[in-house]
Amino acid sequence: MIRAYKFLIRPTVGQEQQLSAMLRDHCGLYNAALQERRDAYRHASRTTVRYGQQSAQLKEIRALDADQGRWSFSSQQATLRRLDKAFAGFFRRIKAGEKPGYPRFRSHKRFDTVEWPADGDGCRWDSTPHDPVTRVRLQGVGHVRVHRHRPVAGKVKTVSVKREGRRWYVILTADQARPELLEPTGSVVGIDMGIANFLADSNGGFMPNPRHGQKAAAKLEKAQQALSRGKRGSKRRRKAVETVARLHRKVRRQRLDHAHKTALGLIREHDFIAHEDLKIRNMSKAPAPKPDPDQPGNYLPNGASAKAGLNRSISDAGWGVFLTILTAKAECAGREVMAVDPRNTSRTCPSCGHVAAENRPAQDTFHCVNCSHTAHADTVGAVNVLRAGLARRNARKG
Fold first, then answer.
1. Residues 252-265: what's their mean pLDDT?
2. In whole angstroms, how far apart are CA 101 and each of 37, 145, 374?
3. Which of 106, 190, 194, 275 has a beta carbon 3.0–4.6 Å from 385's, enabling a disulfide?
4. Residue 29 domain boundaries
């Protein structure tokens, strides 16, 4: 099992300058490789340049360019693979009929990650094992101090360094042979994701929606207004950019913290967790425009403003992040998480099984028109999700 660890690193002033130079040089390599591919395709012969050809040129590039020669060869190969993956995704989207999204050149301000594919090849995790302070050794930078807040279980496979604002992080992937399984509890639960409440469970419990983005909206609006007024290239605009980025990072960290804690609580209490298989990308799409047949060039109201507010609430809730974390924690703990079809889960009576849109007269109210069963609509949805999950699990075992 592969697990990821993210630790804050504390470089010295000189090491921070070297880390910034490393990102800048890898960004230059990425852009140069992209330019080579563009030029080759624009040639009359429509030549395609692939990763193997560009990787074979690295030895010559490192010999001619001293800046490129001081960094790890394997990290530069990883940067070229990163570009190759971008082109692979581009061609895949073309074949699927989606919006292609041609790979773009990267500014050094937006190129923030360098990866080493193997521990010991240009990098070394815990490079001073006899030192009480954990350090990671990076070629061209040196031994950088790491704030390791928890132990790393398993063998380290890859090492990455990432810049987030003014902070630097090291990200590890480790191969953990045997995860630590939790003791069985004999409890099963179904959960229904929502906006008014972050989730409702089949036992009648509710988890309030923290709405981190909405709470920070006023500060973000003020910071973005200051950013829009700043003149490009000015010191005031640079400070405004940092302020906006810092606020967004805080909201993201709050959302992640809430998702981790909520998922951990569910994993510790229940052996089996069923949830709706939500298509979040489809749920947050903007409505299609409605042309006015009587006035060509004009459009009829399509509820776009109301849908935009709902889309913001869905994004702020972070359902996708939470479900990803829940699935990963369940795998590590030996729990079972199952996604079920969400259709009619809040319209089906758990008492008599009657399905009708009229069963839900309000957002939070369920009243069966057949048997008069009354309950909270989200609780009914969670109960139906649990039943569908158990039925699917029993069908698999059978």
1. 96
2. 16, 38, 49
3. 190
4. 2-175
